[in-house]
Amino acid sequence: MHLSKQIKEKNLLPKYDIQEKRNCILHFGIGNFHRAHQALYIHELLEQNKDLSIIGVNLRSNTTKEKLERQDYLYSLVQISDDQKNVITINSIKEILFGLTEKNKIRNLISSPEIELITLTVTEKGYHFDENKNLLLSNEIINDFEDKKLLTVIGHLSYGLINRFKRNKQKITILSCDNLSENGNVLKNLITSFIKKIDPDCLEWLNKHVDFPLSMVDGIVPNNNKTSDFFDLPYKDNSLVVTEPYREWYIESKNTKLQSILSNDKINFVDDVKFYENIKLKILNASHSAIAYIGHLLGYVYVHEAINDNTCYNFISNFLDKEVIPTLPYKNDFDITSYKNRVLKRFKNSFIEDKLLRIAMDGSLKLPIRIIDTFNNNKEKTDYINLIITAWLIFIEDRLVIDSSALQDPNNELFMNFYREKKDKYFVEILNLKKIFNIEKNEKENLQKKVSDNIRYIKKNSIRNLMNNIINK
Question: pTM for this one?
Answer without folding.
Answer: 0.89
